[in-house]
Amino acid sequence: MKLSLSPCNLTDYLTKQLACFYPDKNEVHNALSLIMPRCMERLTTCFSSIHKKYYYESDEAFFNHLHADHYAMFLYIVANEAYLQHIQPLAEKAFLLNKALHGIDAFYAISLPEIFLFVHPIGTVLGNAHYKNYFVVYQNVTVGSDLQGVYPSFGYASVLYSKSSVIGECLFGDNVCVGAHSFVRNKQIPDNSIVVGNYPHDIVKFNKRNNRQDFFS
After folding, report:
1. What is the pLDDT of residues 4-49, one digit of tens each?
2. How many alpha carbons lie under 13 Å from residue 174 in its C-beta half-sphere?
3. Strands (E), 5-153
């Protein structure tokens, strides 16, 4: 994968950002250096599957640290990898930096799939749902639990368009879209569907498109 900064320079760059935003005594450079190889491996797996403008150059995956969507995805991976390796200060700071820079609340403990895509995700909140590969999320999206703490479960190639909300015990099949401004709650959605409208009057239609092919190689 092509990089706008080498892993070493990217480590230094992020270290300086974290020190600027969170100038406490918890130095994270060594921890970040430790997990960076795994973060780059995860980033390469993800970006190599995305077939959208700005994600490849000369048929090779490309990561640009100055592209906001790229960097938001990278920061989620850093935060999550730090959490998985029990490096709590780094997990917390990377999560908070992502929230500060990009306005996305993708908590470090949630398990996004190997292959996912953020599309200018300002104002998006992703809760502790079950996500599968080829997950796409746009701006101002909310994924959350009901009052009983039950979260949605998404199938392969789910796309959540702007200002949509998926709440509670929702079970999505594969190749499902949630239309812009739609609200889905406690509902099963079959494969190859589009959901539009607002609970309890939302409507399920047939999805004739292939979500995976629209966004991924």
Report:
1. 999 999 999 999 999 999 999 888 999 999 999 999 999 999 999 9
2. 6
3. 56-57, 60-63, 105-106, 116-118, 125-126, 135-137, 142-144
Q: What is the pTM of this model?
A: 0.97
Q: What is the CATH number of domain 116-208?
A: 2.160.10.10
Question: Domain locations in the chain?
Answer: 2-103, 116-208
**CA Rg value for the chain:** 17
Tokens representing 144 are 């959350």
Tokens 């994968």 locate to: 1
Residue 68 contacts by C-beta under 8 Å, 6 or more apart in sequence? 101, 102, 120
Q: What is the dihedral of CA 172, 70, 127, 21, to 10 degrees?
A: 180
> First vs last Cα of the chain: how many Å apart?
15
